[in-house]
Design a protein that fits this description.
Length: 323
């Protein structure tokens, strides 16, 4: 092993992905978390590759591009739950090309006949679709098969001082909980509510992020379809709001009339871990402990996961070499 055991806080997509990369390079890794799949925020996500509500832009592009390449590889493995599909972004105004265009394999402007009424611009991109029930279990299986261990905590940690028993390297992937653990006032929730419905045969993702039906997205999956949504910053409520659910169904059916014939399967709410910008850095405390912080991914946890994990690995190896 390269070091004494590395402890990762958090068993969402970031914690598991970091754990896998560290294990692959010879580290001994244990994950500690109060919530495990399928009961994590990551499991609620209508996950597809798209940098949403996250910064800084230059670092996001680097991390997102690395993750895109990894997801393309994973799309060749049926058991991963990852596949490639077409994302149609629509706008009611002319838009410049997005900063992340260089990261994707296929990108083009959308012809007018693909745009719903009231929209005048759009683009199509081939992006990874991540079916979270399958993918999160795939990550757990991969992590444990590599020798990693997972410990469920009886309760959420109140602060970093609760980790008195851990003196090795700690990788902090606690997401929204990082605000409480560290007293980080830059962390905030971005509430997302979705409706899961039967899939009437759709194959393309449609997203209106800032137009008349914003925020709306339709994410078809192999056996269902995720409809969203909301992006309510500062809202901590995990309760399903019936009026919001009705609004989601109405707006998505306006974008895709075939959805009028679907059947509602489930309503879900999750809190994205927002922050003014992603925090990914090594911190050494006065008592000799070392932390690698990796949180604040906003609505792009899956999109940045493998790129951020690669940087966490580099920081961990650098720390080991310096001690």
């Amino acid at each position: 092993m390269k070091s004494e055991e590395v402890v990762i806080l958090g068993c969402g997509v970031s914690g598991l992905t970091c754990g896998i990369r560290l294990l692959e390079e010879g580290f001994d890794v244990r994950i500690e978390a109060s919530s495990l799949p399928p009961d994590t925020t990551s499991n609620v996500a209508a996950a597809y590759w798209y940098p949403y509500k996250v910064s800084p832009q230059d670092k996001v592009l680097k991390w997102a591009a690395a993750s895109y390449r990894k997801f393309v590889e994973l799309s060749l493995l049926p058991e991963s739950g990852v596949s490639m599909f077409e994302l149609l972004k629509i706008y009611d105004r002319k838009m410049p090309e997005p900063f992340w265009k260089s990261a994707v394999n296929s990108f083009r402007r959308a012809h007018s006949d693909l745009l719903p009424e009231g929209y005048i611009d759009g683009f199509l991109a081939e992006v990874p679709r991540i079916e979270t029930p399958v993918y999160m279990q795939y990550l757990v299986n991969t992590f444990t098969s590599l020798g990693g261990t997972i410990r469920k905590l009886d309760k959420e940690l109140d602060s970093i001082s609760s980790l008195n028993g851990n003196r090795g390297l700690i990788v902090n992937c606690s997401g929204l909980g990082a605000g409480r653990l560290l007293g980080d006032e830059e962390v905030f929730p971005i509430r997302g509510q979705i409706v899961r419905v039967t899939n009437p045969g759709l194959t393309r993702c449609i997203n209106d992020e800032m137009g008349p039906l914003a925020v709306s997205y339709i994410v078809p999956r192999s056996s269902d379809c995720i409809l969203g949504g909301t992006a309510e910053e500062g809202d901590w409520s995990l309760e399903v709001d019936p009026e919001t659910a009705d609004s989601i169904l109405r707006k998505c059916s306006m974008l895709e009339p075939a959805l009028k014939e679907t059947r509602v399967l489930e309503h879900r709410v999750g809190l994205r871990p927002g922050r003014t910008e992603v925090r990914l850095e090594l911190e050494q405390s006065s008592d000799g402990r070392a932390f690698i912080h990796n949180y604040g991914h906003g609505g792009a946890g899956f999109t940045l996961s493998w790129g951020c994990a690669e940087e966490v690995l580099e920081l961990a190896e650098g720390y080991i070499l310096s001690t």
